[in-house]
Amino acid sequence: MSSQRQLFLDHLAQTSPTPLLLEMMYAEGIYMRDANGKEYMDLISGIGVSTVGHRHPKVVEAIKYQVDQYLHLMVYGEFVQSPQVKLAEALCKTLPDDLNSVYLLNSGSEVIEGAMKLAKRYTGRSEFVACMNSYHGSSHGALSLSDSDEFKQNYRPLLPGVSHVRFGCIDDLDLITENTAAFVAETVQGEAGVKVGSELYWKAVREKCNKTGTLLILDEIQCGFGRTGKLWAFEHYGIAPDILACAKGMGGGMPIGCFIANRRVMQVFTHNPMLGHISTFGGHPVSSAASLAALQVIREENLLSSVAEKEMLFQSLLKHKAIRALRSKGLIMAIEFDSYNIRKQIIDKVIELGIVADWFLFNDRSMRIAPPLIITKEEIKIACKKILQAIDSVVD
């Protein structure tokens, strides 16, 4: 009989020639356990998903309760379903008054596709401005926003009318004009290796969008839901988007995403044509229940209050001659080394030592650190010790 690993290779579509092939059997909190009983500390939260940890008891309880009520009933937007309604209300209460209408979907890419359609439909414009080294998903519209030829070249033609500017560069904002439907940007660039714009930059962005009638779409799929120490990363900068995109950590481990806008803007989907955007499984009741529970955990356990302190602890402990930079915004961090080769060896060693880390699509010299917000100071010390041990084993 073939092993699980061989069956994985034989029958599951592969996304790289060298998958990690870790066979995990159990996860709880910040830990995962493989088929041999080896324990791993998850320092990437399943790429930004497990914000409140794996299988948080309150999330699991909410899932079990909802499973006993009903699963899928009807396509999104037709039936009044309590989990969707409660989640949408709770999300809107965390946001400025103008962000009061939630469209629930299943994933980050779907959210970006919907947000792009909304911007085009509402403004009557077809052009977009996005940032270099940005990542918004791999579906056709979302991929069109990327400037990476490596990822795009074999899938052209993609969406026309997309221009790219340097992230954080105020001078480049002149590319936003009266023909631009939306400026689309990650509030904190993730796959670029954790790049942060200044408050001055974001206020200039907001002013330019206001002046040209351009909608501002902020992608907080990776940096939202508490990752930066505020529930929404844009709160750090004194501005607000016209459309907010969220997914990943929103679900407490379940698949869900949403884009949020003003009710007046969102109403354009209801006519000319009716059903201007539709989703079969958007806002699945079990995922919605899990998401609401995750939001409540963040609030009730006061997880945001300790993010800055934990960030500083990582910063203080991760000191090594081989580390060229350590960029962070809350508990999303990039440890930069001299080369891809050095970084890869270090990550391989870190995994051997029982730490799951990762890299970035557009910064292959840097190692990703984005642990669940529930990580303790003692666990941070253990993790940093193992990371430094891995670096020492690779760098003379």
Care to describe what's here?
By secondary structure, the protein is α/β, with parallel strands linked by helices. It has two domains: 4-55 and 303-394, Aspartate Aminotransferase, domain 1 (Alpha-Beta Complex); 58-300, 3-Layer(aba) Sandwich (Aspartate Aminotransferase, domain 2). The chain contains 13 helices and 17 strands. The protein has a seven-stranded mixed beta sheet with strand order 4-12-11-10-7-5-6, sandwiched between helices. It has a four-stranded mixed beta sheet with strand order 1-2-3-15. Strand 2 and strand 3 (39-42) form a beta hairpin. Helix 12 packs across helix 13 (377-394). 46% of the residues are buried.
Helices and strands in order, then pairings?
Layout: H1 4-11, E1 24-28, E2 31-34, E3 39-42, H2 45-48, H3 57-67, H4 82-93, E4 101-105, H5 108-123, E5 127-131, H6 140-144, H7 149-152, E6 162-165, E7 180-186, E8 188-189, E9 195-196, H8 199-212, E10 215-219, E11 243-246, E12 257-261, H9 263-266, H10 285-300, H11 307-317, E13 325-328, E14 333-336, H12 340-352, E15 355-356, E16 358-360, E17 363-369, H13 377-394
Parallel strand pairs: 3-15, 5-6, 5-7, 7-10, 10-11
Antiparallel strand pairs: 1-2, 2-3, 4-12, 8-9, 11-12, 13-14, 14-17, 16-17
